[in-house]
């Protein structure tokens, strides 16, 4: 192809620099075309990141912790805490001073249970209630078992789980499918 173009241009009367620039321009789109797959791959990556971010930052369950400080942990489908909310003044203080955001929820509970501000209430013998809420009953049961493992040994902790759509927006709705109390004894 190149030899045909060169022979076609040999009959044209123009300075050789112009001929060379013209030939380069003819072949230039072929070189630019190699950048298209890279641009397409970058666009696909951007779309995946946007969709993945949407999946990551969407809560599918919640864990409520109530003793006097009341907290709500919002958990994504990857079992990562993506939101921490203090529901009262003491809960807000603990939420601000304890780093549990973007940690796995069972590690977040361990961190909260070892927090000195929360420990005071447990050592006073106050009762703590931990409520797991999600729409998927299997997920709810799995999360409840892990939460119970975190509080094993704490005699004054009650764990509950239920399904509902509030993702921890309030304990009233969705209570009921699976309840476990103190020491993991099931009380359906």
- Give the fraction of residues assigned to helices: 40-55%
Mean of all residue-level pLDDT scores:
80
Supply the number of helical segments. Answer: 7
Helical/strand content category: alpha+beta
The side-by-side strand order for the widest beta sheet comes to: 3-2-1-4-5-6-7
Q: Report the oligomer.
A: single chain
Major beta-sheet overview: 7 strands, mixed
Structural notes for this entry:
The chain is α+β, with helices and mostly antiparallel strands and 188 residues long. Helices cover 47% and strands 23% of the residues. The chain has seven helices and seven strands. A seven-stranded mixed sheet has the order 3-2-1-4-5-6-7. Strand 6 and strand 7 form a beta hairpin. It is rod-shaped and about 100 Å long. The C terminus is likely disordered.
List the helices and strands and how they pair.
Layout (H helix, E strand, L loop, with lengths): L1 H9 L5 H17 L2 H22 L2 E8 L3 E7 L4 E6 L2 H9 L7 H9 L2 H8 L4 E7 L2 H15 L5 E6 L12 E7 L3 E2 L2
Parallel strand pairs: 4-5
Antiparallel strand pairs: 1-2, 1-4, 2-3, 5-6, 6-7
Quick overview:
With 188 residues, the chain is α+β, with helices and mostly antiparallel strands. Helices cover 47% and strands 23% of the residues. It contains 7 helices and 7 strands, in the order H-H-H-E-E-E-H-H-H-E-H-E-E-E.
